[in-house]
Design a protein that fits this description.
Blueprint: H1 2-9, E1 13-20, E2 23-31, E3 47-48, H2 53-66, H3 88-93, H4 124-130, H5 149-162, H6 166-178, E4 188-189, H7 190-193, E5 200-203, E6 206-209, E7 215-216, H8 222-225, E8 228-229, H9 231-242, H10 246-251, H11 254-260, E9 265-266, H12 271-277, E10 282-284, E11 289-293, E12 296-304, E13 309-315, E14 320-326, H13 331-346, H14 354-371, E15 381-382, E16 393-397, E17 401-408, E18 411-416, E19 423-429, E20 432-437, E21 444-449, E22 458-463, E23 479-483
Antiparallel strand pairs: 1-2, 1-14, 3-8, 4-7, 5-6, 9-10, 10-11, 11-12, 12-13, 13-14, 15-19, 16-17, 16-23, 17-18, 18-19, 19-20, 20-21, 21-22, 22-23
Organism: Rhodanobacter lindaniclasticus
Protein name: Penicillin-binding protein
Pfam families: Beta-lactamase
Length: 486
């Protein structure tokens, strides 16, 4: 299975581990930490686990609940008096537990532009302040819409209740007692730690490394997706949930374990999941997803972050599961490998193999592209400074801050003050403008509304590809022109 997925998707590197009846029965590492380097992936190679960090964050909170330092039903403002949501009633009624279930009312990925792309200058204080300006996409506790910002807030709640920074608490309360000795969070050095996978993007059929400095900084998004671990530690982390030792049951009580992996918010079951897995119900716990798969209970999460993909999947009733981490673009690869590894347990006689699932996804993607094709960019041109003269200047959004749209070297350049990676050139396509980012981020439409009745010029943005990554939440921005070009 592993070889077939690596071959089908040309993965730069992968680490896989399988647990059966509580025991690690299979590990496999394939590929390189940096494509073409000859540096092999090993069980000690660190990968970004991305949103699999969320379960570690909720375990930290569970530790604090066990210690009597906080309660799930405590209001968030008890620990963070400065916390505000757009609706004052939601602010007053937001519990610690509500931060963890993706049911706050924030639109999907709302405010993620304060986290990614990295590096950026947004702080956790900026996020807590900015939340009040993000308009809700639905009613509080009414439905599931995935967000990351409130996990950052949850990390700050832990810090306030635990009396130390999130990073210090994670090392002290989670990594150390579980002997996750290679896991990293906060500031650390790649050269000192050693054996670190580099993320990759796919470009013209090649795996292109996304370089990182030796000094890895502490990042704002740590509680939502900023932890790195190796395969050995991730298997230890998984076994802690499947077959906890007496010491691990002292580390986190059975009550908190049950709470974290209990259904708290229903998630709609997709047609694909219904067809592939015969699932009838899907839900989110605290940092975990869960569903019935072929009549068996499955608890899992995935992680996606800038050239890294991961999945951790548990079948608690069988004391079995698996984990894998990939250092390349691998959306479909993760879906396919996750499916065939799950079927190893839930439907061992199923004849659908890697190529069957991969072909199905490929056909689905082609059908969608044919039904909803993206605009043809072959005719786009860099917008001239003359045609955009009426729109240039400095714009401000209440949570994202300032951007400039100004002439430079005969073109009009977009630059975000706090997010230097969001720098690009204004392009004209037909009668509309868009920004084409220098570093390959998801391009965005630029839609201007002229000044009227004393109001300034406004600017709204939208994803060029409406099905693109929800973390590019341009639709949540509402810019107003506040001045000219510097």
């Amino acid at each position: 299975m592993v070889d077939a997925v690596v071959a089908r998707y040309h993965l730069p590197g992968i680490a896989v581990g399988v647990i059966e009846n509580g025991q690690v029965v299979y590990t496999r590492t394939v590929g390189e930490t940096v494509a073409g380097s000859g540096q092999k992936i090993t069980p000690r190679t660190l990968f970004k686990i991305a949103s699999n960090s969320k379960a570690m964050t909720t375990a930290l909170l569970g530790r604090l609940v066990d210690q009597g330092k906080l309660h799930w039903d405590d209001p968030v403002t008890k620990y963070l008096p400065q916390f505000r949501m757009h609706d004052p009633w939601v602010t007053a009624n937001m519990r610690v537990a509500d931060l963890l279930t993706h049911s706050s009312g924030l639109p999907e990925g709302g405010g993620d532009l304060m986290l990614w792309p990295e590096p950026n200058a947004f702080t956790r204080a900026d996020i807590i302040h900015g939340l009040r300006f993000i308009k809700p996409g639905y009613s509080f506790r009414a439905q599931y819409q995935y967000d990351n910002l409130l996990y950052v807030v949850a990390g700050e709640v832990a810090a306030a209740a635990g009396g130390a920074s999130y990073e210090t608490l994670m090392h002290r309360e989670v990594f150390a007692p579980l002997h996750l000795d290679r896991c990293q969070v906060g500031a650390w050095n790649r050269d000192t730690v050693g054996d670190v996978a580099t993320p990759h993007r796919r470009d013209d059929g090649r795996n292109v490394p996304i370089p990182e400095a030796a000094a890895i900084p502490a990042i704002t998004s740590a509680a939502a997706g900023g932890i790195r671990c190796d395969l050995t530690d991730m298997l230890s982390w998984a076994r802690n949930w499947l077959v906890p030792t007496p010491a691990q049951l002292q580390w986190l009580s059975p009550q908190q374990r049950k709470t974290l992996q209990a259904p708290h918010m229903l998630i709609p079951v997709s047609a694909q999941r219904r067809a592939w897995d015969n699932s009838h119900i899907m839900a989110y716990g605290y940092g975990w997803r869960m569903a019935d798969v072929d009549g068996q209970w499955n608890v899992w999460h995935t992680g996606t972050l800038n050239g890294m993909y991961s999945m951790l999947s548990l079948l608690p009733d069988r004391n079995s599961g698996f984990v894998f981490m990939i250092n390349g673009e691998a959306d479909d690869a993760r879906t396919v490998l996750g499916e065939v590894l799950t079927k190893h347990f839930t439907a061992p006689n199923d004849t659908r193999d890697v190529n069957w699932y991969a072909d199905t996804l490929e056909r689905k993607s082609k059908q969608h592209a044919e039904k909803s094709p993206l605009p043809d960019t072959s005719t786009w041109q860099a917008a001239t400074t003359t045609e955009m003269a009426a729109w240039t200047g400095t714009y401000r959004d209440p949570w994202f801050g300032d951007i400039t749209l100004c002439p430079q070297d005969g073109k009009v350049r977009f630059a975000a003050k706090k997010s230097p990676a969001l720098t690009g050139t204004a392009m004209r396509l037909g009668k509309r403008y868009l920004v084409h980012w220098d570093n390959g981020e998801l391009d965005a439409w630029l839609d201007f509304k002229p000044a009227a009745d004393g109001t300034p010029i406004s600017l709204r943005m939208a994803k060029f590809d409406p099905d693109g990554d929800f973390s590019s939440d341009y639709e949540d921005l509402a810019f107003r022109r506040v001045g000219g070009c510097p």
